[in-house]
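Input structure tokens:
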């Protein structure tokens, strides 16, 4: 697991020595860990980088590329697809050369294209990513402050599996909605994924195949949602990297001496399930279309 403390100052070189990843540039993608390190520096302002917090509580992070138009490739693509690829985003801000302060784990809720100067002062296309702190997507705090989301959350509990899957597979928005709405959509998507995994399991642990150990006061089988490739255990993810498992298997997935092998086996099992459900979902969509045309 990553041992990072929000607010703590680290020497960047030591971070790379411990976790790997590119030592230069603002986006680092270690090969041995499912994470992405983002480094924001005040020096980037002269290259069109306008990193910082918005009034909606999102962090604007400008993509990589100092000269010419930015492209949605390499590090920029890694940020845009981090959820579906099961990679955690960790944000740092430079405090002085070689030293960075850890801001925390983030979720990319949208990105948009804009304009700004490049290394030579020429106007070019740039990408702005809008990141939400993972704790800001906490269920309790959001439901307390947003009546509309409470209604949306209630609807999720009644959705069939196919509808939950469709919602869970939604991509990061590309500037078509405002920042607050992007954050709300990402939160609802994360909750849809949790509900989807629990429904997909049909009351049996997706790791050991045993029935849930007990039922909740609401009558639902008790299983815990585990993020297979995530180093943290909460927040949005992708259906292929989420499993509903019993408490015993959940502890094993995190703390057993064979946790790595256990998670790899579970990932293969869930991916096979998803392939089957994807084919079934496609057939169901065709059936609905045919029925609609016939009527």
């Amino acid at each position: 697991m990553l041992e990072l403390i929000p607010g703590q100052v680290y020497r960047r070189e030591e971070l790379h020595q411990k976790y790997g990843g590119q030592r230069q540039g603002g986006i680092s993608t270690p090969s041995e860990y499912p994470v992405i390190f983002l480094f924001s520096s005040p020096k980037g302002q002269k290259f069109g980088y306008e990193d910082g917090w918005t009034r909606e509580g999102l962090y604007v992070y400008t993509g990589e590329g100092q000269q010419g138009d930015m492209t949605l490739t390499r590090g920029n693509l890694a940020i845009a697809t981090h959820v579906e690829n099961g990679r955690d985003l960790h944000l740092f801000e430079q405090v002085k050369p070689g030293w960075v302060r850890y801001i925390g784990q983030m979720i990319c809720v949208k990105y948009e294209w804009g304009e700004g100067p490049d290394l030579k002062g020429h106007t070019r296309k740039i990408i702005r990513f809008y990141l939400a702190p993972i704790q800001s997507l906490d269920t309790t705090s959001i439901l307390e402050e947003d009546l509309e989301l409470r209604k949306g959350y209630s609807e999720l509990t009644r959705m069939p599996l196919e509808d939950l899957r469709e919602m869970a597979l939604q991509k990061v928005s590309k500037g078509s909605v405002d920042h607050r709405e992007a954050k709300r959509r990402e939160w609802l998507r994360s909750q849809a994924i949790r509900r989807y995994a629990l429904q997909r399991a049909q009351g049996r642990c997706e790791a050991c195949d045993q029935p849930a150990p007990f039922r909740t006061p609401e009558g639902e089988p008790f299983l815990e949602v585990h993020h297979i490739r995530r180093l943290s255990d909460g927040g949005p993810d992708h259906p292929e990297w989420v499993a509903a498992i019993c408490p015993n298997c959940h502890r094993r997935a995190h703390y057993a001496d064979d946790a790595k092998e256990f998670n790899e086996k579970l990932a293969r099992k869930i991916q096979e399930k998803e392939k089957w459900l994807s084919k079934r979902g496609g057939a169901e969509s065709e059936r609905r279309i045919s029925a609609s045309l016939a009527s």
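The first helix runs from residue 12 to 19. The chain has a mean pLDDT of 84.
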